[in-house]
Amino acid sequence: xxxxxxxxxxxxxxxxxxxxxxxxxxxxxxxxxxxxxxxxxxxxxxxxxxxxxxxxxxxxxxxxxxxxxxxxxxxxxxxxxxxxxxxxxxxxxxxxxxxxxxxxxxxxxxxxxxxxxxxxxxxxxxxxxxxxxxxxxxxxxxxxxxxxxxxxxxxxxxxxx
Length: 161
Description:
Blueprint: H1 2-8, E1 19-23, E2 29-34, H2 66-72, E3 83-88, H3 92-101, E4 105-110, H4 117-128, E5 132-135
Parallel strand pairs: 3-4, 4-5
Antiparallel strand pairs: 1-2, 1-3
């Protein structure tokens, strides 16, 4: 889950940074993604708004969810039988992708939109396809990355050790 959260930091969405991490049965990472605009589409030219008079002026018709990006960015032949860790419970569109990709388990942190029709449909689809889902219960609430905690050779160090 920490890798999913770290990946989410790359999102330019000012309201919701969501990340996803796919692991295989050996707990090796096989895909990572975060919510963002499609490749080749300048995310500074597309809207990030959550609401507007015209839906085309919101992010929703354009943004690719973290689950989609993690599946598309996989570094293995397929993700059948894998587990996806996501910051936010997947919407119905992502549930369809998860099912079609053969992912067998979803571990999520937040179910913020639990009562929306999209999440109800998502749970219905995941249940019908026998994809397990469970909420992540963190043992720690904080992980700190300290880039000064280890000694690394500097660029001027000519040592080859």
